[in-house]
Amino acid sequence: MAKTKKTLFISLLVAQGVVLGLLENMLPYPFAFAPGAKLGLANLITVISLFTMRNRDSFFLVWLRLLLTTLLGGTVSTFLYSASGAMLSYAGMLGVKKLGPQRVSIIGISAAGGFLHNIGQLIVAAMIAQSWSVMLYLPVLSFLGVLSGIFIGMAANYLLQRVKTLQEFQLAYERRNLTK
């Protein structure tokens, strides 16, 4: 039963991430002065997974989300950019999370992820363009990445508080039914 619950939980989060990613792809870019910059709504699921499951499972979730989003509405180039940003962001968020909650909040972890996501994408862009001049875009994308990361971190913090409440309610319900 535990394995089924874990698989179901991962599947639900992947589905939510894919839907958020596809919805965001349908929206016009919110930052007119920074073409290609997005809020990264699907990263909300990544942040939530960092705090609700084992690292191996959250890593699997990120890859599934990337693959499905690409298959349903992307191209090979969008996959390259998304995967490079997501992997650097994921690794960075794991590293920052290890500092502990007394040093860094969920919002700080997410902000670091937003910053690193853009660095990963710019590195791939530099390799494709065979020029490091694309890194001139880094200050603008860094600012927007941190800003988006803060927004995503605040949303994740809010949702995780609600998830914790739901988990506590579920445990109390299960305990009550076991005693009958």
UniProtKB/TrEMBL annotation:
The membrane spanning regions, by residue number, are: 63-84, 104-129, 136-160
Span of the signal peptide: none
Keywords of the record = Membrane, Transmembrane, Transmembrane helix
Q: Matching InterPro entries, A to Z?
A: Hpre_diP_synt_I (IPR014535), Hpre_diP_synth_I (IPR010898)
The record's listing under Pfam families reads:
Hpre_diP_synt_I (PF07456)
Record protein name field: Heptaprenyl diphosphate synthase component I
Query: From what organism does this protein derive?
Result: Enterococcus pallens ATCC BAA-351
